[in-house]
Write a structure and sequence with these properties.
By secondary structure, the chain is mostly helical. The chain contains 8 helices and 3 strands; from the N terminus they run E-E-E-H-H-H-H-H-H-H-H. The chain has helices at about 45-55, 65-80, 85-90, 95-100, 105-125, 130-145, 150-175, 180-190, and strands at about 5-10, 15-20, 40. Helix 2 (about 65-80) runs antiparallel to helix 5 and helix 6 (about 130-145) crosses helix 7. The longest helix has 26 residues, at about 150-175. The chain starts with 5 loop residues before the first strand and ends with a helix. The relative contact order is 0.12. Mean pLDDT is about 80; it is low at about 1-40.
């Protein structure tokens, strides 16, 4: 997977090992891979948790974090469903949606606020899990169309299924160790 991992240096008495990556699934204009410059592979629990947060993992879930994410998800989901019909009208364009009685500027701000709430709470609990939010809605648009009444519900359900299956793969592939979820979702989203 890693085209050329170069060992930079070893810190302390073998507590952490810093590896500089060159292109996991391609490079940006600075020559960094999509996981960004340097990643830390560590035995130190704090460094390990940073690595897993950067690549996403649900292994640190607790009932408290499930409760927080559950409440914010249900709240955001109910609010998002209220915007389904106006979002369908917005697909026609700002002017046409305005003719249908949609306050487009207010709708855009409210949708951005709800999305920010949902994404920030989820990311704070499980880390950065790439491509799930990009793959699932587009897949559903191909299968069912772009009606937001179905797309919002379907995206939530299929996104949860994709996350659970990906987590199971990450726990089984290199058992008894666990692979970060972002590695598997990067392979799914890269093509």
């Amino acid at each position: 997977v890693v085209e050329g991992a170069q060992l930079s240096h070893q810190v302390g008495a073998g507590d952490r090992l810093l590896v500089h990556e060159r292109g996991v699934l391609g490079r940006d204009e600075q020559g960094r891979g999509p996981l960004g410059g340097e990643q830390c592979i560590a035995r130190d629990p704090q460094a390990r948790s940073i690595t897993f947060w950067n690549l996403g993992s649900v292994s640190g879930a607790s009932w408290q974090s499930v409760t927080i994410v559950g409440i914010s998800t249900i709240t955001g989901f109910i609010l998002a469903l209220r915007f389904a019909k106006p979002l369908n009208a917005l697909q026609l364009g700002d002017t046409e949606a305005g003719y249908l009685g949609v306050h487009t500027d207010r709708l855009k701000i409210l949708v951005i606020l709800v999305n920010t709430l949902l994404v920030s709470v989820a990311t704070s609990m499980v880390g950065i899990i790439a491509f799930v939010g990009l793959i699932v809605p587009h897949l559903l648009r191909l299968l069912k169309g772009s009606d937001n009444r179905y797309l919002l519900i379907g995206s939530a359900l299929l996104g949860a299924i994709v996350l659970i299956v990906t987590d199971m793969i990450c726990r089984v592939v290199i058992a008894p160790a666990e692979m970060p979820i972002g590695i598997v979702t990067a392979f799914i989203g890269a093509p």
